[in-house]
Write a structure and sequence with these properties.
Layout (H helix, E strand, L loop, with lengths): L1 E5 L2 H13 L7 E5 L17 H6 L6 H10 L7 H14 L11 H23 L3 E5 L2 E7 L7 H11 L5 E4 L3 E5 L4 E5 L12 H12 L7 H7 L14 H20 L5 H8 L6 H8 L25 E5 L4 H6 L6 H13 L7 E4 L6 E6 L8 E6 L4 H16 L6 E5 L1 H8 L5 H4 L12 E4 L2 H6 L2 H23 L1
Parallel strand pairs: 1-2, 4-5, 8-9, 8-12, 12-13
Antiparallel strand pairs: 3-4, 5-6, 6-7, 10-11
Helix pairs in contact: 13-18
């Protein structure tokens, strides 16, 4: 096997013309990054083709492959040159439409690498932050960015169009580019510490980001996916993210109360009609009169929590379902059956627990149900997730219930709605389940799947989630009764 060092895309094209002219298959050559490590066999480099050979080597390549190859050339993978040559060889000798075979291993790998390049280019356009510098009375703007791949030459034309009337420079560890409002000039790479550290524009970025930050819709994992942590060191607005996230629950409550909430909450009814000490029976009776949100208009009845005042474990769900609404009792439908089975498997007696929901009325929409066997066609009440206004209006009932359970030691949140009501918006079950954590409602809180969500899960993961529910209930049992 012979080895050849490749410097860039243009060099690769020149080399492969000679390889194909000489009928050298990919199995007999290794294309390495320039200055890269030689192969284990220590073979000498293959000479580049002569000008005459290059001119005489004529073959047609699909334009799609040329475009793809130019993109992949920006990738940092050391295998890209071999992969490209192998694909080209196969196009010319095996299958002209190889790139249309999406399941082919080489095509899959090229497609994946192309997506990584395009995503990296998108991130660069989004996260480059220029800092203002004055020199000799002239104004310049300099930015430092660390892309995953060598994409600067692909993205620089975008910045020349976007900031046509500015003199700017973008520095990266690999190379740099400057724009003088006329042309692009290329230079060497620059380490982070040589880039400007601060200017007044950063305050503008922080103010702008703080104003567009929506605490009600923040999802930390998604935010880190769209704004990767590795870019935060060059983003002035990243300095305030931690404070914004910490303040998000308070801001959500404030937004709901001032702009999106109902005029009253259950707390208004409780404080107006009941005097301490509160009791579960008094709360249950008063809850029948609650009209704090509009859900009471369509629901059959209020479905209040049930269980002994001496309960040491509290289970909190989202809201009653169709059958619960008709029966006036929590977890009596299919979800209740699954919860009962899981509790028995975990050694937990539900009759000794207090079981309730964040929202006490059934929220639904009517939909047409097709005829099934002897059942006629008709309307069906389809579950709808309660929104932030409805949760805020109804949550005081749960908080009052909890205050009447002096021996409660563990709070189990069944599903995302219950978890968000207790731990704050954007908290994910994936991130919390399987362990005990503290919330303002309980020092020992456990998050797990709602039985209804398990029933709606695909067959491939339903059994796994069911076992996780059992494990989480068992964790509660061990915590309280060990």
């Amino acid at each position: 096997m012979q080895t050849i060092s490749i410097t860039d895309y243009a060099h690769w094209r020149e080399i492969v013309r000679g390889l194909i002219h000489s009928e050298i298959s990919p199995q007999h050559v290794q294309l390495l990054e320039a200055n890269g490590q030689q192969s284990l066999f220590g073979d000498a480099d293959l000479p580049s083709p002569t000008a005459a050979q290059t001119r005489s080597t004529t073959f047609r390549v699909p334009p799609k492959f040329l475009s793809l190859a130019e993109t992949i050339a920006c990738h940092r993978s050391g295998s890209r040159w071999n992969l490209l040559y192998r694909t080209l060889w196969r196009i010319l000798h095996e299958h002209r439409s190889l790139l249309e075979i999406e399941t082919d291993d080489d095509v899959l790998q090229l497609t994946k690498m192309e997506k990584q390049i395009r995503r990296d280019a998108h991130k660069m356009k989004a996260f480059v932050r220029f800092r203002r510098v004055e020199q000799g009375g002239e104004e310049f703007f300099i930015a430092w960015h660390q892309p995953d791949h060598r994409i600067l030459r692909r993205v620089a034309p975008f910045f020349s169009r976007r900031f046509k009337g500015m003199n700017w420079t973008i520095l990266t560890p690999d190379e740099s580019v400057s724009w003088d409002q006329t042309s692009l000039t290329w230079g060497q790479g620059v380490p982070r510490h040589e880039a400007p550290a601060f200017d007044q524009l950063e305050d503008l970025w922080r103010t702008y980001y703080a104003n567009i930050f929506n605490p009600a819709r923040v999802k930390v994992k998604m935010m880190k996916s769209e704004m990767p942590v590795r870019f935060w060191k060059t983003l002035p607005e990243a300095e305030i993210i931690a404070a914004l996230l910490a303040d998000a629950p308070r801001r959500v409550d404030e937004m709901v109360e001032k702009h999106e909430g109902f005029a009253e909450t259950a707390a208004d009814l409780i404080t107006a009609r009941l005097t301490p000490p509160l009791t579960l029976s008094a709360l249950r009776e008063l809850a029948r009169e609650c009209t704090a949100c509009s859900l009471h208009c369509d629901a059959t009845q209020t479905v209040f929590g049930i269980g002994p005042e001496q309960a040491r474990i509290v289970l909190l769900g989202e809201q009653p379902g169709d059958q619960e609404d008709l029966a006036g009792k929590s977890f009596v439908g299919p979800a209740g059956e699954l919860l009962q089975e899981a509790a028995e498997a975990a050694g937990l007696r539900l009759s000794e627990c207090y079981v309730t929901n964040v929202v006490k009325h059934f929220k639904f929409k009517l939909t047409e149900a097709p005829a099934l066997g002897r059942q006629p066609r008709g309307k069906r009440r389809l579950h709808q997730k309660p929104d932030a206004r409805e949760i805020r209006a109804c949550r005081p009932w749960f908080e009052a219930e909890l205050s009447c359970l002096p021996e409660a030691q563990v709070l189990i949140c069944l599903g995302a709605t219950a978890l968000n009501a207790v731990a704050g918006p954007g908290t994910r079950i994936h991130d919390r389940r399987g362990r005990i954590f503290s919330t303002r409602h309980s020092q020992q809180t456990i998050a797990t799947w709602h039985p209804a969500a398990i029933l709606r899960s695909p067959d491939t993961i339903r059994d796994t989630k069911r076992q996780q529910l059992i494990d989480d209930l068992k964790l509660a049992v061990d915590t309280v009764f060990a």
